[in-house]
Amino acid sequence: MSGPILQISDVSCYYGAMRAVNGVSLEVLKGEIVAIIGANGSGKSTLMKSVAGLIRPESGRIKFEGEDISGVPAHRIIYKGISYVPEGRRLFANLSVRENLELGAFGERDRRLVNERIASVFELFPILKERERQLARTMSGGEQQMCAIGRGLMSAPKLLMLDELSLGLMPSLVEKVLESVVEINKKGVTVLLVEQMVQEALEIASRGYVIQVGRIVRDGAADELLNSDEVRKAYMGM
Predict the structure, then answer these.
(1) Residue at 62 is within a domain
(2) Are 50 and 3 in a shared domain?
(3) In this predicted model, what pLDDT tens digit does every residue of 120-134 receive, in sequence order?
(4) Is residue 172 part of a domain?
(5) CB–CB of 50/56 below 8 Å?
(6) Residue span of the structural domain in which 229 resides
(7) Is the residue at 49 inside a domain?
(8) How many domains does the chain have?
(9) pLDDT at position 220, please?
């Protein structure tokens, strides 16, 4: 690992009329998996959306590879090497798996590269190869999540941001999806993960941040957070 690929410094932003993120600072080093954990409504997704260019920060700075991207619109963020897989998957329901994947590479004009990336997604998720011509809405929740991650990879990101992967999935599928995140990371993609399933997220992460009511209240190595009585009591029911 080397220096920070993402630096968030004292960022505050609103979600509607409510200030959902309040003075948050964190960093993600190149090559890491970093987990942001917290309860529903704590500001996790709003923070991710601000990095993805979907919400403009009220104050503070967001830097990617040393460049200030605060307020850069979403379509330009993708070209800088950041891909965001939103909560709830947000696939194009009436398009096929392959068509959804192709849309993830909308900025790539080299057809050969697009096909190579699709092949790489199919290698990671073999079931998607079997479902290649199937409409996204007819697939199971787990298959849809795999397709959403695959679409996120189609822009060849340096940083992949994953928002609530476990939402609506059976525990066995959550484990499978998180294993794929580890494989993606091994191929050189830095990962920022927002997840309510705290134990599962911290088990694959190198570091984590705990967010409560829009503020970071704790951070550290993933194993330290896993073994923290405070974290275990608040988020794991232990």
Answers:
(1) yes
(2) yes
(3) 999 999 999 999 999
(4) no
(5) yes
(6) 1-81+157-164+180-238
(7) yes
(8) 2
(9) 94
Residue 46 belongs to domain with CATH number:
3.40.50.300
Q: How far apart are CA 76 and CA 73, in angstroms?
A: 6
Gap between the Cα atoms of 52 and 166, Å rounded: 20
pLDDT of residue 180: 92
Q: Are residues 6 and 68 in the same domain?
A: yes
Q: Are residues 1 and 77 in the same domain?
A: yes
The β-bridge partners of 24 are: 11
Sign of CA dihedral 172, 177, 182, 187: positive
Could you please report the per-residue DSSP string of the chain?
Answer: --SEEEEEEEEEEEETTEEEEEEEEEEEETT-EEEEE--TTSSHHHHHHHHTTSS--SEEEEEETTEE-TT--HHHHHHHTEEEE-TT----TTSBHHHHHHHTTTT---HHHHHHHHHHHHHH-HHHHHTTTSBGGGS-HHHHHHHHHHHHHTT--SEEEEE-TTTT--HHHHHHHHHHHHHHHHTT-EEEEEES-HHHHHHH-SEEEEEETTEEEEEEEHHHHHT-HHHHHHHS--
Same domain flag for 90 and 73: no
pTM assigned to the model: 0.91
* Residues across the chain: 238
- 77 and 184 within one domain: yes
Asked if residue 76 and residue 3 are part of one domain, the reply reads: yes
46 Cβ contact partners less than 8 Å away, ≥ 6 residues apart: 13, 15, 20, 21, 55, 214
Is position 236 within any domain?
yes
Flag whether pLDDT at 238 surpasses 50: no
Query: What pLDDT, in 10s, does the model give residues 38-68?
Result: 888 888 999 999 999 999 999 999 999 999 9
